[in-house]
Amino acid sequence: MQFEADIIKALQNLSNGVTDALNTGITQLGTEIAFLAVAVVLYWCLDKRYAYRFFNVYILGVAMTNFLKLGFKRERPFNAYPEIVRSIGTPETTYSFPSGHTESIASISAMLTIKYGKKHTAVPVVCAMLTVLVMLSRMYLGQHYLSDVFCGLTAGVFFAIAFNALLSLFGDKEEWFIVPNIVLTVVLISVLAGMGVLNSPSGADILKGVGAFVAFDAGYIIEKKFVGYDVAANRVWWKVALRLVIGLGVALGLQQGLKPILPQNISMLYCFLRYFLLAAWVAVAAPALFKAVKI
């Protein structure tokens, strides 16, 4: 809508080197890198069971958001209104509605609030502030309309509450969620193939999530039954720091280092396999290493 483009134009009237850099940095809080950082801190350092729930809720939300994008197929503002809106930074290649970055930060914020909000009142306040900043940054950068980010916010909170409630039904047998996980994975890949969008940007994003989804849940079962790394017994500050440096270093190495190796034109390899290996490292290989070297 024209008035939404005018809102973006008003925000972009504030554009300069400093505000461009600031918003480009803020928007990264809605990316998979930010999610990975939170997920591994939870899983390797604080609470493995809640981290398992956090991971699955997030991935399910990302998949649903990208299916909505494929359904609505809304053009980005800088494409629809090139005369008044420009893309600041790298232009996105997926569809606009709803905002995936906003859904991502909203989901993360909702899950952290559910877990820690009652004991630490600063958590929901900080999470809300960061979510609003990401929403504004997405409009400022010309990537989304107001309705995109508002619906991304709604989707993120809704998916977090709904999928968290679903996973809570499994009680202390949360690893059995792998059964509907596998069914959903087969359905998602079949639907993408039927739509002919496996290699599209949105299809690729879904395949990333599906690859991580399968590997993390399977890895969690293996870790729980055969590794049993005790997070609570290893909270000495230098051990925590060492775990994060080593673990995140390898994780980012897999996420980025496999890019030039795997064929980009085959999404099942470039997206699914790359994120499958990344999640397998996070879920089982890293805890096994931490236990072996006693950190």
Topology:
Blueprint lengths: L1 H11 L4 H10 L5 H15 L1 H25 L4 H4 L19 H17 L5 H19 L5 H23 L9 H18 L5 H27 L9 H21 L9 H26 L3
Helix pairs in contact: 2-7, 3-4, 3-11, 4-6, 4-8, 4-10, 6-7, 6-8, 7-8, 9-10, 10-12, 11-12
Give an overview in words.
This protein is mainly α and 295 residues long. It is 73% helix and 0% strand. It contains twelve helices and no strands. It has helices at residues 2-12, 17-26, 32-46, 48-72, 77-80, 100-116, 122-140, 146-168, 178-195, 201-227, 237-257, 267-292. Helix 6 runs antiparallel to helix 7, helix 6 packs across helix 8 and helix 11 packs antiparallel against helix 12 (267-292). The longest helix is centred in the last third of the chain and has 27 residues, at 201-227. The protein starts with a helix and ends with a helix. The model has no long low-confidence stretch (mean pLDDT 91).
Brief write-up:
The chain is 73% helix and 0% strand.
Comma- or semicolon-separated keywords:
single chain, 295 residues, mainly alpha, 12 helices, 73% helix, globular
Mean pLDDT: 91
- What is the H/E string? HHHHHHHHHHHH
The helix content is: over 70%
Please give the count of helices. 12
Instruction: Note the overall shape.
Output: globular
How large is the share of residues in beta strands? under 5%
Give the number of DSSP strands.
0
Radius of gyration: 19 Å
Low-confidence stretches: none
Quickly give the structural class.
mainly alpha
**Distance N to C terminus:** 54 Å
| Major β-sheet profile | none
